[in-house]
Amino acid sequence: MKEQGVAVQKLEDLGNGWTIKYSVRLHEHVWQVALQQLNDGASITAIQGCNQELCHAKLYHNQATHDPLTANVCYEFLDTDSSRLYKKYSSAHGIDVAEAPQYNIDNWLNPNSPAY
């Protein structure tokens, strides 16, 4: 689930005083649209605004038949999704955010680096 992203937490009342919480991943098409917008220079605020418009119009893939009560995906891009979006964006551009910055720079500039 790490690569698929986790968008929201759903709560389910079990009827016995216990409530369980489980993660629902963001639909892949939402990530694709957001990444394209980020590539085009959009701000997070603009990405969220566009997401709200697309959600309201139900223009994401499979959203027209989406039942939020039973679905294992969601379409609303939340504030908490921005860090994952930047990680995906960085990864797509060859930046390993798990590595210290100096190693990324060495990989880009050192012709002997396997990641050059």
Overall description:
With 116 residues, the chain is an alpha+beta fold. The protein is built from four helices and three strands, in the order ββααβαα. The chain has helices at residues 28-39, 44-57, 82-92, 101-109, and strands at 8-13, 19-26, 73-74. It has a three-stranded mixed β-sheet with strand order 1-2-3. A hairpin with a 5-residue loop joins strand 1 (8-13) and strand 2 (19-26). The longest helix has 14 residues, at 44-57. 12% of the residues are buried. The model is unreliable at 1-8 (pLDDT under 50).
Morphology? elongated
**First-to-last CA distance:** 29 Å
- Number of E strands: 3
What's the tally of helices? 4
Roughly how many Å is the radius of gyration?
A: 18 Å
- Give the percentage of residues in beta strands: 5-15%
Structure classification: alpha+beta
Order of helices and strands: EEHHEHH
The unreliable regions are 1-8
Largest pleated sheet: 3 strands, mixed
Strand arrangement across the biggest beta sheet: 1-2-3
What is the helix content? 25-40%
What is the mean predicted local confidence, pLDDT?
83
Give the helices and strands, then pairings:
Layout: E1 8-13, E2 19-26, H1 28-39, H2 44-57, E3 73-74, H3 82-92, H4 101-109
Parallel strand pairs: 2-3
Antiparallel strand pairs: 1-2
Helix pairs in contact: 1-2
